[in-house]
Amino acid sequence: MASTVIEQVDTSEEVEQTPEDTGIQSFLVTFNIRRFDPEVDDEPRWVDYDVELYSTDRVLDALHKIKWEVDGSLSFRRSCAHGICGSDAMRINGRNRLACKTLIKDLDISQPIYVEAIKGLPLEKDLIVDMEPFFASYREVQPFLISNSKPEAGKERVQSIVDREVFDDTTKCILCAACTSSCPVFWTDGQYFGPAAIVNAHRFIFDSRDDAGDVRLDILNDKEGVWRCRTTFNCTEACPRGIEVTKAIAEVKQAVLRGGR
Ligand code: SF4
Ligand code: FES
User: Fold this and answer.
1) What is the pLDDT of residues 25-48, one digit of tens each?
2) Ligand nearest to the CA of 95
3) Which of 87, 104, 168, 245 is least surrounded, with the fewest CB atoms within 10 Å of its CB?
4) Cα–Cα dist 153/156, whole Å
């Protein structure tokens, strides 16, 4: 009878490899972070931090290092850390970006890296803003499918590939607010719906299965609606999902003029 040999491997000597073991060099990067604690500060203040990083690190890794190793009171939002949840939009060197998608190697580290909260929304603490005005505009455009008919029992609502293509770009929105908070009109007029709300209205206005496009167009044909857009393209440049935000706004404007999609 054949015998079974079980080979035991001694793993007690295994040690975790650090980037130094693989020859990857670390370097010191200075971060200048705009801090604000409403319980202590009258005004925001800039604070310097020197952080040891690797070129494969992201700005989010630097923020974690500062929070976990230097000052636990540093406050910022993040969840997925992979560009999906949209919670860590911030201004990095004056541009709206997701901290989890901004690689250190893509920044000029010979200068301090400036990090601050996105603009145009009430500052709560450090890099955290009150997102409620942003989500209030989002809710107002009714960002969900409204249909007057029911699909056939047990069947999906059929849509052609061509019809699906029409609004494909705007389905990619992760509601990070990078677009809305980079818009000069939104900075000066907090009542403006803002690009993100219009993008999410576009997603349903141009969906052939939806029957409430007219309602949304009516909502956006307002003095605080699409006509406030000055086509500065800041929103398109800021979008971490590569959505053609300005184009979507222009398509909604045209639909308002046509009286339908
Ligand atoms: S359109 Fe782009 S920038 Fe604007 S909220 Fe959506 S994902 Fe963020
Ligand atoms: S942490 Fe989720 S998008 Fe950056």
Assistant:
1) 899 999 999 999 999 999 999 999
2) 1
3) 168
4) 8
Closest by alpha carbon to 32, among 66, 57, 77?
66
Pocket test for ligand 1, best of 100, 137, 167, 199 (most atoms within 8 A of CB): 199
Radius of gyration of the CA atoms of the chain, in A: 24
- The predicted model scores a pTM of 0.90
53 C-alpha to ligand 1 centroid (Å): 28
pLDDT band per the 50, 70, 90 thresholds, residue 6: low
The dihedral through the CA atoms of 174, 177, 180, 184 has a sign that is: negative
CATH of domain 24-129: 3.10.20.30
Domain 132-145+163-258 has CATH 1.10.1060.10: yes
- Residues 204 and 178: their CA atoms lie apart, in Å, by 21
The CB of 87 under 6 Å from ligand 2? The reply is yes
Domain residue ranges in the chain: 24-129, 132-145+163-258
Convert the pLDDT of each residue in 136-150 to its tens digit: 999 999 999 999 999
Mutation choice for ligand 2 from 87, 90, 173, CB with most ligand atoms inside 8 A = 87
Mean pLDDT computed over 169-198? 96
